[in-house]
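User: I'm writing a short methods note and want a consistent example. For Trimethylamine methyltransferase family protein, I'll paste the sequence; you return only the structure tokens, no commentary, since I'll be parsing the reply automatically.
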Amino acid sequence: MRPRLRFLERETIERILGEARELLDRLGVEIHNEQALALLADGGARIDRDRRRARLPADLIDRALATAPGEFSLHDSTGRETHRFAGDRVHFTPGSAAIHLLDHVTGEMRLPDTRDYIAFAKLVAGLPHIAAQSTAFIAADVPAGMQDSYRLYLSLLYGEKPVVTGAFAAESFALMRDLQIAVRGSDEALRARPLTIFSVCPTAPLKWSAATSQNLIDCARAGIPVEYIAMPLCGFMAPVTLVGSLIQHTAETLSGIVMTQLAAPGAPALYGGSPAAFDVRFETTPMGAIETQMIDCAYCEIGKHLGLPTQAYIGLSDAKRLDAQAGLETAMGATLAALAGINSISGPGMLDFESCQSLEKLVVDNEIAGLTLRMVAGIEPREDFPALPLFEELLREGHLLISGHTRRHLRSEHYFPGPVIDRAQRSRWLDEGGLTLGERAHREVERIISSWQPPRLAQESAAEMTRSMRAEARRLGMDELPAREA
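Assistant:
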């Protein structure tokens, strides 16, 4: 039986949805994009051009929900299906778009560069419980105008897994789409086997910028899945109560669904988000707060109630080092998310309020993901009934170490972590160097990167992507792309 977690009663979910619908009908949503406003007007929204507000009637929301798909798949660069976002299936992906990297050698956060990003991509390729790549941090050695596409380029060049990505500028989309087409071979092949998900973020409260609303439209029409990342902040840019913030999150996400489905009915998307509690003592947005994690699980219940696949930024930490706080916040979030059946769990590797990635933390989080995936597999009988013969063997032999029952079920019944997690006796731990968690994690980072094998990407695809990126670099004033190898 799969264990499950729920925070909301059905009646509460329906009341939240009703309140969110009323907000969209009475107050509407502010949209700074003429194309999006025209699209909504054609769909039946009431548009106030002076205030850039669109009021969405109930029937428009219902039509959008009726065409939004209840599940979809992602595929790696070879075309193999890796994800099926459906039901309570769970997939982990690193958190995205950090501006700092935690340097293991110095212990300091610093700006990452191209070689750091390549190390990250090689590492993710070797982590079995991290199902997708993400454009995890921003390489600071290229111009800002190409940072969106450059992260995706490096991800596709050095890894096979699908990529969770996004664009801070609407102008980045065309090149990012073309990079994916270079891998797939055609626009039609990309539509048939999506390679990426784009994160698109409304601005709290009830607002879409020109860039993010354009991303919604462009992705929908290109057949590229999106994840809606509404970010209400409890008590600051949203009501202080969890239910109040859920109402706002629901309204903002529904508005995104409407725009996506008007642009291209049937366009795939994840009902996601990155809300946070607001800690008034420090003026911070703690992603590791239990209230943040509760909101994440609860809004995903709302998404499931609507029949939609789900996503959340959860399973990360606000700590500044790979320490006990990092472990407890990440493990608690990942456990709750898996029990809630969140389809795409974004967060592994992240520290410091989503602003920092750590390669060492990522390998630890890979083990947390493995543990939680074992947990949600549940407990099932495995030749346990009748029990008498097995206990007769135990009494006869004095142990069951080499029993046929043990050999058949040991690997499937028990999850054995890698060397990052210490399960040795103290004497063996001392004999092997008495390494700390951080030291073991760093060793594992180095081992995985050193054993990396290039992805099975056609040479002509890699060459086409590189030509495109070089042209973009020259357009922005760079003579050549940064060196990728030492």
